[in-house]
Amino acid sequence: MSQPEFNVEVATLDRNGDPGFVHYRGAFYTSRSAGQFALTQAAALSDTREVDTVSVVIDAVSD
């Protein structure tokens, strides 16, 4: 089986505006799945933590 091609991290920002604590992390085979995960988890994090801005990082994994 092949390895996932995209890694996603969703984090809150620290007091300096830099990515801080990673709340959600996942690995996905397609960019579409990675994007959907990033959007839904970012929205959930924003709602539950009542923050206006979150950090989302999507990395493409190379062989």
Note the main attributes of this structure:
elongated, 40% strand, three-stranded antiparallel beta sheet, 63 residues, 1 helix, alpha+beta
Report on the structure:
Strand 1 (6-13) and strand 2 form a beta hairpin. The model has no long low-confidence stretch (mean pLDDT 92). A 3-stranded antiparallel sheet has the order 2-1-3, covered by helices on one side. The relative contact order is 0.33. It is 30% helix and 40% strand. It is elongated and about 40 Å long. By secondary structure, the chain is of the alpha+beta class. The chain is built from 1 helix and 3 strands. The protein has one helix at residues 31-49; strands at residues 6-13, 19-28, 54-60.
* SSE run: EEHE
Which percent range describes the beta-strand content?
35-45%
Mean of pLDDT: 92
The coarse overall form would be elongated
- N→C terminal distance: 14 Å
Low-confidence stretches: none
> What is the number of helical segments per DSSP (H or I, 4+ residues)?
1
Oligomer: single chain
Strand order of the largest sheet: 2-1-3
Number of strands: 3
What is the alpha-carbon Rg in Å? 12 Å
Strand pairing plus helix content: what structural class? alpha+beta
Please give the largest β-sheet. Answer: 3 strands, antiparallel
Helix content: 25-40%
Structure in a nutshell:
The protein has 1 helix and 3 strands, in the order E-E-H-E. With 63 residues, the chain is an alpha+beta fold. It has a 3-stranded antiparallel sheet with strand order 2-1-3, with helices on one face.
What is the topological layout?
Elements: E1 6-13, E2 19-28, H1 31-49, E3 54-60
Antiparallel strand pairs: 1-2, 1-3
